[in-house]
Amino acid sequence: xxxxxxxxxxxxxxxxxxxxxxxxxxxxxxxxxxxxxxxxxxxxxxxxxxxxxxxxxxxxxxxxxxxxxxxxxxxxxxxxxxxxxxxxxxxxxxxxxxxxxxxxxxxxxxxxxxxxxxxxxxxxxxxxxxxxxxxxxxxxxxxxxxxxxxxxxxxxxxxxxxxxxxxxxxxxxxxxxxxxxxxxxxxxxxxxxxxxxxxxxxxxxxxxxxxxxxxxxxxxxxxxxxxxxxxxxxxxxxxxxxxxxxxxxxxxxxxxxxxxxxxxxxxxxxxxxxxxxxxxxxxxxxxxxxxxx
Length: 293
Hints:
The chain is mostly helical. The protein has one domain. The chain has helices at residues 3-27, 32-54, 62-87, 91-98, 101-113, 119-138, 143-164, 172-194, 206-233, 236-243, 245-258, 266-292.
């Protein structure tokens, strides 16, 4: 296997595993909070061991640690919203909703950087709103799931903003280690008070046990490592466009596993296709901007 093929294989394995995370969550009886805590904690322990073994840890300032834990908290709530969206709707709806993340970034970035919103961003934003309106119209019985899924997309945008503004000299594995700790801590801390009976952490089926292991080891620790490995070798544009396949992989896998239970209206797929096309267009236009500089 040549190096280029190896890099693409690593990239798409990571993206496919992220798409499979929604299917895995739907097979589990564990609620969204429990899934998020187990996923984050298992991945944190694995990366902690790896970082100690390869001695990649560097001395972080207290401020840097707090920043990473804060972005990790956002990541944890994002994952909770994603899994909750699936529990209240379907895998397809949850995946399509979190695909809105890049569009939120395109609309929020001018506000954060205090620059003027471009016509292309307004056009893509407007088209995305139309796409979401179509999804709401045809899948109104899943309104709660759609709203929670859109919150997951918005949180993904904030997570990306804050992560991009951390010290880039910090290795990706160390950054992920602290963020995963923050993700586990915020959901655990909240649910200890919300549901003190601990039922939300009880693994009652084999699907729960294997599911949390798959999410923590494969979909988090391994996928994040492979993705970083691939991005360092491939162009950022290739990685960004490839990420749009997360929803495609996940929906295809859900249709194979769940069959008719996952079949949705033509309106959902049409609106979802519109939304993903907007994300791809935004990625291409962002690339054009960088090239012109």
